[in-house]
Amino acid sequence: LVHEMGITQSILSIVLDQAKQNGAKKVTQVNLEIGEMTNLVSECVEFYFDIVSKETIASGAKLVIENPPLKAKCSTCGHIFRVEDYNFICPKCNNISPNIISGKELAVTSIEIE
């Protein structure tokens, strides 16, 4: 959980920097991508965001979190598949294919401001 706190403080820092650059008086919404492979708990990020954003222009902002699933592309046959339980074996050709194409994201995709 300490991991989520540090990440959330970094998210807030990015949000406040962008808000300042755009002359915002208030941040109303923060849109995030937190990929499945990051192992971050979205509810914890939301909880910590409420705490760390107090007394900032982002206080009370709504967090909208997308959780892209862990997917890989087989380097042998090109098949794109959902990775379950960190099993990177291609279900089509049975080759091991750790070419991750989604699920590692951790990004502030946009913010809404007043």
How are the SSEs ordered, and which strands pair?
Layout: H1 2-21, E1 27-34, H2 42-52, E2 62-66, E3 71-73, E4 80-82, E5 100-102, E6 106-113
Parallel strand pairs: 1-2
Antiparallel strand pairs: 1-6, 3-4, 3-5
Task: Report strand %.
Answer: 25-35%
- Count the helices. How many? 2
The class by helix and strand makeup works out as alpha+beta
Question: What's the alpha carbon Rg, rounded to whole Å?
Answer: 17 Å
User: How far is it from the N-terminal to the C-terminal residue, by CA?
Assistant: 31 Å
- Helical percent range? 25-40%
Spans of 5+ residues with little confidence (pLDDT < 50)?
none
The H/E string reads: HEHEEEEE
Describe the protein's architecture and organization.
- The protein has 114 residues and is of the alpha+beta class.
- The chain has 2 helices and 6 strands, in the order αβαβββββ.
- It has helices spanning 2-21, 42-52; strands at residues 27-34, 62-66, 71-73, 80-82, 100-102, 106-113.
- The strands form 2 sheets. Strands 2-1-6 form a 3-stranded mixed β-sheet, with helices on one face. A 3-stranded antiparallel β-sheet has the order 4-3-5, with no helix packed on it.
- A hairpin with a 6-residue loop joins β3 (71-73) and β4.
- α1 crosses α2 (42-52).
- It is elongated and about 55 Å long.
- It starts with a helix and ends with a strand.
- The mean pLDDT is 95.
Summarize this structure as a short list of keywords or feature phrases.
114 residues; three-stranded mixed β-sheet; 2 helices; elongated; three-stranded antiparallel β-sheet; alpha+beta; 26% strand
Q: Concise description?
A:
With 114 residues, the protein is α+β, with helices and mostly antiparallel strands. The protein is 27% helix and 26% strand. Helix 1 packs across helix 2.
